[in-house]
Amino acid sequence: MGMSAEDERAASPRDEEWPEAEKAEKLARGAALKWASGVFYRPEKLEGLGHYRRRETQRNSSIQSRLKSTVQSYLEGVSAGLEQLRSAAQEVQSVCQDLGAARWALLDSADQFQGLQQMRKLMEEHVQLASVVQVLPQIFSVHEVFSHILQLLHGQQLLEAHVELMMVEQLRDDILSQLHLRGLSSAQATVLSYFSGLQDLNESLAKQLWDIVGSSLRLVREDPVLFVTAVRIIEREEKIDDSLLLEATFLPPGRPKGWRQKFYQVLQDTITGARFHAPRMDAEGPGLAKHLAALQKDIVSELCVVKDLMVPCVPARYNILSVCTATYHQALTSHLQEILREDLDKQGLFLLLEWALHVYHSPEMLGHPDLLPEVDVSALDPLMSSELVDQTERRYVMKVKASVFEWMQRTLEVEFKEWFREEEPETDHQGFFQSALPAIVMQMLNENIQVASLITDSLQQKIYNMALEELEAFLGRLREALVQCGKEHQQDRAVPKHYISHLLAVLNNNLALSNSVSSLHPDTTCREVPASLQGALDRIQKKATQLLLEELLLDLQPLCLQLPSRKWLSGSQLVGSMCEVIDKYAKDFSRVRKPLFMLLLAESELLVANQYLRALLQRKMVCKSREERGQLCHRLLQDATQLRELFCGLGLERSQQSLEAVFALRELICLKDPALLSLEVLGFATKYPDVSDEHISTLLDIRGDVSKEVRHVVLEMMAQHPQDLPEGYRPIFSTILVPVQELPFCLRKGKCA
After folding, report:
1. Which pTM was predicted?
2. Which CATH number does the domain housing residue 478 bear?
3. What is the domain range of residue 88?
4. H helices within 561-676, ranges in order?
5. Does residue 549 sit within a domain?
């Protein structure tokens, strides 16, 4: 079954050329050997070897016969193909010979072709001459047509005139186009001069068209035929422009006319010229209000005419209602800016803001039911930009500020004059003194804030801030007026006649203002009063209280000058007289509201306690014996008790009274053992931390029995235990200045300590 040497030599070149074939053959042989060894491995299987050999021989013979048949059919096909190629090559050679012969024939006929070219040119010229002959009658009648067109225009037969005008233009354009193709520019100039009348006719027609468009709002109401005619002519011209622009080979003179754009421009100029280029009107409130009202009425009316009557007369693509709306909008924007360049008063500025921000978009104007839904207000830009609105609001605030200042100043002048009248100030239903000042001021401020709220929240906030600033400044001027009134009263206590009553009215007015300020805030949930304004209110209250206490002091001082004295020690009615003065003032103080009454009562009590202590410490005396100290302590107890009971009866509780300092001072004087003074003084200084070493030294002098050593111990202990003023402490001793050492006042004749 192995290969012979010749087979190996024959296969070697193929194997070298196809190494994959050699590998495949080896694999096949290996597979066959493996199969044969597996089949004939057993001896009993060798009996079928001859049968297997015959079967394989038959199969090989069948395969070889099929291969021979296949190769034979392939060879027959290749033979047929070669025969067809041979036949095709012969036909190609024949065609090449025919083409060569045709080429020589064409070369021989070149002269004849040149003659045909000349004949073609003559033919074209003949055709052109025939065309010229056909249009000669039209060319000769051009000027007659011009005259007829002019007559039609004078008779407002615009459509007929435009038809003939288009025919003449078409004739001219055809001639110019032919000349343009032949490059005969000189001939073009001649044609243009011959048709020069076309320009005048176009201008005449255009003038009538624009006059009609300019009167379109009137015409569509009275007789829309002329307006529709104008629109049809404009549409024709627009189509001619579009077709010429699309061809882009030759553009006749005067093209494109652009009459549609001119239509928009004339319509827009008509709108803006009729309403917004009028002579300068009165820029103040009444004149401006009438002007804006007229604009509002006319614009709504004209837009309704456009929507209902003009829109059906023009193609939908014109968007004539949107164009007119945008034109009015732009014209109004510019017009308002021109008005704002004037020096408008506050009423004028308010009218402009209200009109631009509220009326313009409301159902009274562009949101009118007759204009909806075709007019879309939301698609328009704001009539006034945010920057212009802010600028106008600031101008308005400045105008209002000047007006508020003027009114407040006038109110203050009236109030100041009221202080010097012979009558008491008016009272409310509870008998409290008051004047009209708080009501006037708050009404003025509140009205301006409420009016501003009709425009924007930002304007309301600006007016609110301005109102607080002006109120604060007004309170400052009111305080200055109080100071001036107090100075005049110091020169003559009879002027004003009802000085105390008017001061009490000022306090009530100030309280009313303080309670009303929070109501001015735009946000009802915010009731906080700015610190600077509250400070101004507090300064008014403090000044009026000070002037009232000065009056009380002037009446108390003559009595306090008698302290201490022998008459006082002997049990005179000095403190009783003081109580009468205090009670009189308390009755006057009852004409203010309770918080103010309690304040005046507390301040009066502090003043009385201060003056009483001042008299004791500044006009100090020295007790010569225990009996004298007892007499002094008894008088101090009676006076302090009487004064305390008075103020308690008026409604001031003991815990709020400063007269307790007199009781404490009395305890220091009544102390029997001077050695205990250091502890008592320390307790006194702890309770009244504003007491100084000088005050304590004066008290020790009044006792008259304190040695230098005890004095030194007391003052040393005070130095070792300095006291800080607690928060909310009302000073009593810090305002009492102790005089320099002088000869002490003695209770009776004898040698003084």
Report:
1. 0.72
2. 1.10.357.50
3. 52-106
4. 566-569, 574-589, 594-618, 626-650, 660-670
5. no
